[in-house]
Write a structure and sequence with these properties.
Layout (H helix, E strand, L loop, with lengths): L22 H11 L2 H14 L2 E2 L6 E2 L22 H9 L37 H5 L6 E7 L2 H12 L6 H15 L7 E4 L4 H7 L3 H15 L14 E3 L11 H8 L3 E3 L2 H4 L3 E9 L3 H12 L4 E9 L7
Parallel strand pairs: 3-8, 4-7, 7-8
Antiparallel strand pairs: 1-2, 5-6
Helix pairs in contact: 1-2, 3-6, 6-8
The protein binds zinc ion (2 copies).
Length: 317
């Protein structure tokens, strides 16, 4: 029997270091311990004392809960296409004001069946984009949860550049839900984060992609499922040389910048395996292509790519 990678979106827990806890964390955590009238009063007082700051636009906002559970805070709007927008609203609720939370755009068909780019025309079937027809590339399929713009972009920036590590939890849940919608669990043997070079790791202090995978592994472990499919990426593939940041570079420069930047250090772990690479953002695909090239060269059966967000040529990001 093939064990399942799939896990419920509400199941990530533990293992994530919650630095930068803001007032809201305190509110929700303390409010969760009491119930009924006391909970209602406690939350109302907490929110009056600590107004919430939107992580996207920076504005302070507050609300008057109609019900003790506070479930009226953001009415959940179901996405008729794939529902990832309502998942985003549910998981990002504590971090975003009511205006920003609606700016999430889920990645949805019609899209390129390989690289996952959404077509400007929103009617028709999935098919290969012209780039993928010209260059079949090294990975099999890339998918993302959302279009890299608006609130999701702001949350990823907060995570990466402001070390708001509490965001691993909502973004990890979104990532898992995207996997559930775009893959059959038995299509993947192993989940690996895109590694950072040691120098970058020391500068930043953490690898956000590895933390997303760790959160996923924790959820699977809690359900007593096959968490062995989530090895530490650095024991299998490493960045063998430092590279300049990809941000601000065009596609050919990105490809040159990342060339031969990865090295498989455990060939036997890779051979014959179907690998899912995880990263926070897919931009031109140069990083994913290069990592997939190294994995395939060392005997990987297939490489897929999953990211929290993806730039789209028409989105202007
Ligand atoms: Zn906002
Ligand atoms: Zn494509």
């Amino acid at each position: 029997m093939v064990p399942s990678l799939e896990t419920g979106i509400g199941s990530i827990a533990g293992g994530v270091h919650l630095h930068n806890l803001n007032a809201l964390d305190w509110q929700t955590r303390s409010a969760g311990r009491v119930s009924g009238l006391m909970g209602y009063v406690g939350r109302a007082v907490a929110e009056a004392v600590f107004p919430q700051k939107c992580r996207a636009c920076g504005s302070f906002w507050s609300y008057v809960p109609k019900f003790p559970s506070g479930e009226d805070r953001h009415p959940v709007v179901l996405d008729p296409v794939d529902g990832l927008a309502d998942v985003f609203q549910a998981v990002a609720m504590p971090w975003l004001c009511p205006d920003c939370i609606t700016s999430f755009e889920a990645v949805a068909s019609p899209l390129c069946g390989r690289c996952g780019v959404m077509f400007q025309s929103r009617v028709g079937e999935d098919h290969l984009c012209s780039d993928c027809m010209r260059r079949p590339g090294n990975f099999r399929r890339a998918r993302a949860a959302g279009v890299y713009s608006g609130a999701i972009m702001a949350l990823i920036h907060q995570l990466k550049y402001r070390a708001c590590l509490a965001l691993i939890h909502p973004l990890g849940r979104l990532l898992q839900e995207a996997f559930r919608r775009h893959w059959q669990p038995e299509e993947v043997d192993m989940v690996l984060s895109i590694p950072l070079h040691n120098r970058r790791l020391r500068q930043r202090g953490f690898n956000q992609a590895q933390m997303l995978v760790d959160a996923w592994a924790n959820a699977v472990r809690e359900e007593k499922r096959d968490w062995q499919r989530f090895p530490k990426a650095r024991e299998i593939i490493v960045r063998s040389r430092p590279t300049a940041p990809q941000a601000g570079l065009g596609k050919p420069e990105r490809r040159r910048n990342i060339r031969r930047a990865f090295k498989v250090v455990d060939r036997s772990a890779v051979q014959g395996r179907r690998i899912l690479l995880v990263d926070d953002v897919y931009t031109t695909g140069a990083t994913a292509e290069e990592a997939a090239h190294e994995l395939k060269k060392n005997g990987a059966d297939s490489v897929d790519v999953l990211t929290v967000a993806r730039t789209m040529p028409h989105s202007g990001s």
